[in-house]
């Protein structure tokens, strides 16, 4: 069996597992009020954290699931310190799994995958001298699926320490702000919610502009050679 088929099998298995968990837990959850649900999860915080870590692992195989949904859900359910711990750990797990999936499948498969996501086509060419900066900026922009960036970095054999440090630092502010969006979601008019949304948007815009600037500078440098 080819590596791409193995990955597709793993993705299908992850999707089936998510659907199975939904079928199992939905009958118990559909009649719960929000307060009852939050009280139940608070009383079983370690089990709930474990369930979310499983979802983070499954999300690493399925690109179409936005990581923001998980991060906001964690923020709604957990108090701020616990929510930050779960989301940051989940982010590290997703970053590493995506990276090693890229190493496993190779660049040919990743490039085929990128063609399905036009926005991600801009990240195909990574200047080797700017690996850390690339990983930092692409993860702070919220424009590209985290899975694809990680898989591309792995397929190009980017140093895993540079990748993980750049990706973690690039994602850190966004993860914190999105988590607080979740913890304050019940009161969208609160200063915490408004400030967190503003920080998320401003960091994404600033990172995008910096990324475009560095790409332009890199292109000009290559043309002069």
Straight-line N-to-C gap: 44 Å
Reported for the largest beta sheet, the result is: none
DSSP strand content: under 5%
Number of domains as seen in the coordinates: 1
Low-confidence stretches: none
Structural description of this entry:
Helix 5 packs across helix 8, helix 7 (131-140) packs antiparallel against helix 10 and helix 9 (160-183) packs antiparallel against helix 10. The radius of gyration is 19 Å and the shape is globular. The chain is mostly helical. The protein is 78% helix and 0% strand. It has helices spanning 3-29, 34-43, 45-59, 67-77, 80-105, 107-115, 131-140, 146-155, 160-183, 191-224. It has one domain (3-224).
Keywords:
0% strand, 10 helices, 225 residues
Summary, kept brief:
By secondary structure, the chain is an all-alpha fold. The protein has helices spanning about 5-30, 35-45, 45-60, 65-75, 80-105, 105-115, 130-140, 145-155, 160-185, 190-225.
Summarize the helices and strands and which ones pair or pack:
Elements: H1 3-29, H2 34-43, H3 45-59, H4 67-77, H5 80-105, H6 107-115, H7 131-140, H8 146-155, H9 160-183, H10 191-224
């Amino acid at each position: 069996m080819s590596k791409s088929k193995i990955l597709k099998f793993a993705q299908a298995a992850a999707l089936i597992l998510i659907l199975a968990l939904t079928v199992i837990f939905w009958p118990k959850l559909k009649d719960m009020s929000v307060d009852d649900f939050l009280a139940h999860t608070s009383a079983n915080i370690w089990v709930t954290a474990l369930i979310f870590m499983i979802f983070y692992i499954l999300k690493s195989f399925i690109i179409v699931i936005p990581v923001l949904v998980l991060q906001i859900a964690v923020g709604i359910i957990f108090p701020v310190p616990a929510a930050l711990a779960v989301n940051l750990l989940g982010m590290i797990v997703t970053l590493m799994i995506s990276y090693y999936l890229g190493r496993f499948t190779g660049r040919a498969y990743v490039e085929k995958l990128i063609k399905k996501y036009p926005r991600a086509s801009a990240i195909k060419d990574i200047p080797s001298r700017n690996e850390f900066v690339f990983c930092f900026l692409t993860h702070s922009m919220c424009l590209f699926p985290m899975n694809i960036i990680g898989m591309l970095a792995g397929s190009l054999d980017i140093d895993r320490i540079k990748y993980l440090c750049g990706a973690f630092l690039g994602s850190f502010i966004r993860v914190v702000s999105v988590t607080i969006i979740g913890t304050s979601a019940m009161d969208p008019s609160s200063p915490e919610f408004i400030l967190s949304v503003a920080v998320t948007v401003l960091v994404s815009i600033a990172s995008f502009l910096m990324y475009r600037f560095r790409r332009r500078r890199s292109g000009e440098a290559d043309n002069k050679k």
